[in-house]
Structure formats: C-alpha cells, structure tokens
Hints:
- It contains seven helices and four strands.
- The chain has helices spanning 10-14, 18-27, 42-48, 58-65, 80-88, 101-105, 120-130, and strands spanning 2-8, 31-38, 70-77, 114-116.
- The two termini are 13 Å apart.
- Residues 57, 60-61, 91, 109-110, 112, 115, 118 line the site of guanosine-5'-diphosphate.
Amino acid sequence: xxxxxxxxxxxxxxxxxxxxxxxxxxxxxxxxxxxxxxxxxxxxxxxxxxxxxxxxxxxxxxxxxxxxxxxxxxxxxxxxxxxxxxxxxxxxxxxxxxxxxxxxxxxxxxxxxxxxxxxxxxxxxxxxxxxxxxxxx
Length: 137
Ligand code: GDP
C-alpha cells in the first residue's frame, strides 16, 4: 500500500468539480485517507514548490496556487503514486490522454486542475507538509 498527495487546484475548485475529481480516485481503487480545503499563503506555495524556485514560471505558479482555495487529499492504494499520475494525465492538458482528469477539467499548463506527487519520497514529504499524523486515517 502506498500513500500519495493530490491537490485539487484553484481552477478546478472554482469550477465546482471537487466531487467529480474525487470520484475518479475512488472509482479507480484509491481511498481517501484525508481531505481538507485550505487557502494557501504565498509562503506555503513557495515552500511547497521550492524545487521550481529557479524556473521562469515560479512567480506565476505561486500566484495561481494562492488565487483561491485548494483541496488537499491523501490518497491510499496499491501503486498510489503511479496510479494517481496516470489518472491526472500530462502536465499540459493539451497533451493529456483522453479521459484523464487534466484532459477533462483543465484549460492550460498553469491552471491544470490537479497536483500529484511524482515519487514515493516526495509523497511522504508532501503529506507531512500539510497533514499531522492524526489526520491521516
Ligand atoms: P506536474 O508534476 O505534472 O504538476 O508538473 P511539474 O512538477 O513539472 O510542474 C509543477 C507545476 O508547475 C505544473 O503542474 C504547472 O502548474 C506548473 N508549470 C509547469 N510548467 C509550466 C510552464 O511552462 N508554465 C507555467 N505557467 N506553469 C508551469
């Protein structure tokens, strides 16, 4: 069993499709181990995406992630990290396979509906960044 972190980004929250995205996870063998809606601060977003700090799009990324509430989810299941990445689709929704979350709910490379941890190690760090142990059940 693995755990991974998903974030439903501000664009998808604003489109009122939280339930539709959660259904993709539950219908594909992933379980919700924790879930909460938060407003990220610029400090939160900057720290969460610090690996991208030198990228030209970093400012836009922080601005976008703080533009409205997000839903932070811990997903649990067999191969949860890879399974979630498959369900999400490519970073650029124009390149995402049909039937993926980004193909169906995202409009652009920055407003791309969801985040998902890209390795088991990052998943552990990202879960610890947002959740206390007693919140993950
Ligand atoms: P992910 O793991 O598929 O989310 O992609 P990355 O880790 O490569 O990038 C993190 C996030 O930065 C992406 O989900 C996008 O929201 C954003 N991003 C990546 N590349 C670009 C870009 O070229 N322009 C902009 N504006 N945002 C980008």
